[in-house]
Amino acid sequence: MSNFNVAKFGGTSVANFEAMSRCAAIIESNPNTKLVVSSACSGVTNLLVELANGVQDQEHRSEILKQLAEIHDSILNQLNDPTQTASDVYSILDTVTSLAEAASIQASNKLTDHLVACGELMSTFILTQLMKERGINAVRFDIRDVLRTDNNFGKGEPEVETIAQLAQQSLVPLCHDYVVVTQGFIGSDEEGNTTTLGRGGSDYSAALIAEAVKAAGLEIWTDVPGIYTTDPRIAAKASPIPEISFSEASEMANFGAKILHPSTLVPALRHDIPVFVGSSKEPEKGGTWIRHKVESSPLFRALALRCNQTMVTLRSAKMFHAYGFLAKVFEILAKHKVSVDLITTSEISVSLTLDQTDTSGGAPQLPEAARLELEELCTVEVEHNLCLVALIGNNMSESKGYAKQVFGTLEDFNLRMICYGASPHNLCFLVHESVSKLAIQKLHTELFEG
Ligand code: ASP
Ligand code: MG
């Protein structure tokens, strides 16, 4: 299927009946859209995470369950024929009830994944029915039959080859006859246990599925009309970017802009699938295309901000003129599955920031066991409340003079860590959370509003 398009809708895009109807209109407007990937209705995953963490107070638990029922009821009530769908949704809510009780006795990552997956399982029942009622030949598909991951609950690692095989067997044939509606975020391990790809993982799911079905395009519909030069809530003069290259966008996804899950572009890049990002609320506004080749490659493209950064500094005199120190550090981090974002080194110390994408939320923590092992090697210092500011652009490592402009603008700021040179597309640094927005505003004015 050469024009096969996959469309993904985020939580706010499927928040209620009107929002879901807008999604259906977007799906109708592109006859090549054969596969729809949906998040849970807005707010649902947060409630499920709360239950999964173990709510002991039974009254509070019932209150959360009631909220979950209300969110879905309000959409079900507006369907023409909700009977079957309501019974499907309610049977999942029963599962949620018993899992929440189990979690209140003993929480576990495995249980959490089973529980939080229920949001997408419910939203897709409703979206499918709504689409059918508009005359779309829609069918719901349980993506756990295809999206195989390892059993690292909370942040499953997809098994790309198996996913492709399973998709070719069971998903692709279905797409010839139907518009298939399926879940983002969730998958299953070899034993059939439900897993998730980590918070915000639906984008990544959509990209993995697009790759597996060999799609020609991937649309990510969210609540912002594409990627902007920076977050317009921080700098009012931020402007939309119509087109951006994969290389620039991957630096953005990794280093800040919360628009896409950081891993989304990996499968898209592997298979050269153009990705569109737009707002399902205002599809007429257009959005951003992320492609291999773009028409213009400006020096400065965007400014991204990511807060909740944890910085770890390791110091040891043993590092001085020695070899193998960093290898040992990374061996320990790898063993504890700690993913590192940034790194800078000096003669006797190394600073790094930790990546955060699992279901726990909050600032990433250095696992205690990893800390203890590192402490056998060196001193370990952990700092929180930092934000990462990333300037994204082109040919930055070969251009002259702009560092003066950037750092001159920030002369009053304490820059905690600076990374530059590894990529021609990015210069980034850490600042304290309390001044992070100001840093973005100043830089945006200086570099983008001239
Ligand atoms: N529903 C999941 C979350 O809120 C996944 C997603 O929406 O991307 O994290
Ligand atoms: Mg999202």
TrEMBL record:
It holds the Pfam family ACT_9. GO terms for molecular function: aspartate kinase activity; ATP binding. CDD domains: ACT_AKiii-LysC-EC_2 (cd04917). Its EC number is 2.7.2.4. Residues 5-278 form the Aspartate/glutamate/uridylate kinase domain. ATP binds at residues 8-11, 222-223, 228, 233. The keyword Nucleotide-binding applies. Pathway: Amino-acid biosynthesis; L-threonine biosynthesis; L-threonine from L-aspartate: step 1/5; Amino-acid biosynthesis; L-methionine biosynthesis via de novo pathway; L-homoserine from L-aspartate: step 1/3; Amino-acid biosynthesis; L-lysine biosynthesis via DAP pathway; (S)-tetrahydrodipicolinate from L-aspartate: step 1/4. Residues 312-359, 389-447 form the Aspartokinase ACT domain. Substrate binds at residues 45, 120. The keyword Transferase applies. PANTHER family: ASPARTATE KINASE, ASPARTOKINASE. Belongs to the aspartokinase family. This is Aspartokinase.
